[in-house]
Specification:
This protein is α/β, with parallel strands linked by helices. 41% of the residues lie in helices and 18% in strands. The protein contains 12 helices and 12 strands. The chain has a 6-stranded parallel beta sheet, sandwiched between helices. The protein has a 4-stranded antiparallel beta sheet with strand order 1-2-4-3, with helices on one face. A two-stranded antiparallel sheet has the order 5-6. Strand 3 and strand 4 form a beta hairpin. Helix 2 runs parallel beside helix 4, helix 6 packs across helix 7 and helix 10 packs across helix 11.
């Protein structure tokens, strides 16, 4: 991007004008969005800066500090667009959050990090926290992703599992979660094994269907390449050469967590996900996820990643709801 800033005034309170020329290989429309929605989103992120586009020239007007920040934002957005990632209001909003928060991560670095391309779409992290989580999975044998609903902790773990299988880094995927509502005593439930466990494992199947051709899933399961099973079925096993995901880990007891982690075999990788604010365990049972960092926090090759409301990738209200409940919990605990 060619930038032709006006001479910087000595007084930073004096408005300036700054012109940016969009490179010829990138149509200006890629930066504008449908109905100029992308540029309007930029203006909403920085209300003190006027943004005007004419042809391949974008003009910024405002106070020097804010104009410089918007110029950086447009640089990042053009890099994102050049990578083939479509620009949207959501991309702009997340880029603004990154540039205005205390983080060293660049929006383009986060938003162009491809994890998996499948069925005509590419799965990427959308926040700094998600990028740190994905990087931790790459660097460590066991990674814990702890955070509220909607932060992508399970979905990204599933994407990394499928990526590892496709790259032949592992020979199988094992997906598991505790069936708390059944007390893990699935034998007492009516129906076949599949009918008993399906309600508890359905979220894992749903994510898998997003990433793998649905027609191939029965074949992968029959061949043992993909296994989806309740946590009770992990006992007594050693899982070699596998990518293992434990979901809803807040509903494991300390003994169950220890049992699961000690299933780790050679050539395997584990990701444990959960939300410590949503424990469904009965009575005085201690959540294994709540105490595991205290136990394993100093162990090498084990990473703990905490995701928060800023990492929510569902409706914007989900993040607000999470913050409101956290605030209420703090008040009620006093």
């Amino acid at each position: 991007m060619t930038q032709t800033p006006a001479r910087r005034p000595a007084d930073r309170s004096v408005p300036v004008e700054h012109r940016i020329v969009v490179p010829a290989h990138l149509p200006a429309a890629a930066l504008l969005g449908t109905g100029d929605e992308v540029l309007r989103a930029v203006e909403r992120g920085f209300p003190g800066v006027r943004v005007h586009a004419r042809g391949d020239v974008i003009t910024l007007q405002g106070l020097p500090g804010e104009v410089e920040l918007v110029a950086r934002l447009l640089d990042e957005l053009l890099e994102v667009a050049a990578s083939g990632t479509p620009l949207s209001v959501d991309v702009v909003t997340r880029s603004v959050q990154m540039l205005t928060s205390a983080t060293v991560s660049r929006p383009a670095e986060v938003l162009t990090h491809n994890i998996l391309s499948s069925r005509g779409r590419t799965i990427r992290p959308k926040t700094v926290g998600q990028k740190a989580y994905v990087d931790a999975i790459d660097r460590n044998t066991i990674t814990f992703g702890i955070g509220p609903a909607g932060t992508g902790k399970t979905y990204l773990a599933m994407a990394k599992a499928v990526q590892s299988l496709q790259a032949k880094q592992v020979s199988r995927i094992v997906l598991t979660r505790p069936a708390v509502e059944a007390g893990e005593r699935l034998g007492f439930l009516p129906g076949t094994l599949s009918e008993k466990i399906d309600p508890y494992l359905r979220p894992l199947y749903d994510a898998l269907h997003d990433m793998v051709d649905p027609d191939s899933i029965p074949r992968l399961i029959e061949a043992g390449t993909v296994e989806v099973a309740p946590l009770a079925y992990m006992r007594g096993r050693t899982l070699n050469d596998a990518f293992i995901v434990l979901d809803e880990a807040q509903n494991t007891s300390t003994d169950q967590m220890k049992m699961f982690l000690t299933r780790l075999g050679f050539g395997s990788r584990m990701v444990v996900t959960g939300d410590v604010t949503q424990v469904d365990l009965p009575g005085a049972t201690t959540s294994g996820l709540r105490v595991v960092e205290e136990i394993l926090g100093e162990v090498d090759d084990v990473a703990f990643c905490r995701l928060g409301s800023a990492d929510v990738v569902r409706h914007r209200l989900v993040g607000d709801i999470i913050d409101a409940y956290a605030h209420w919990d703090q008040g009620s605990s006093r």
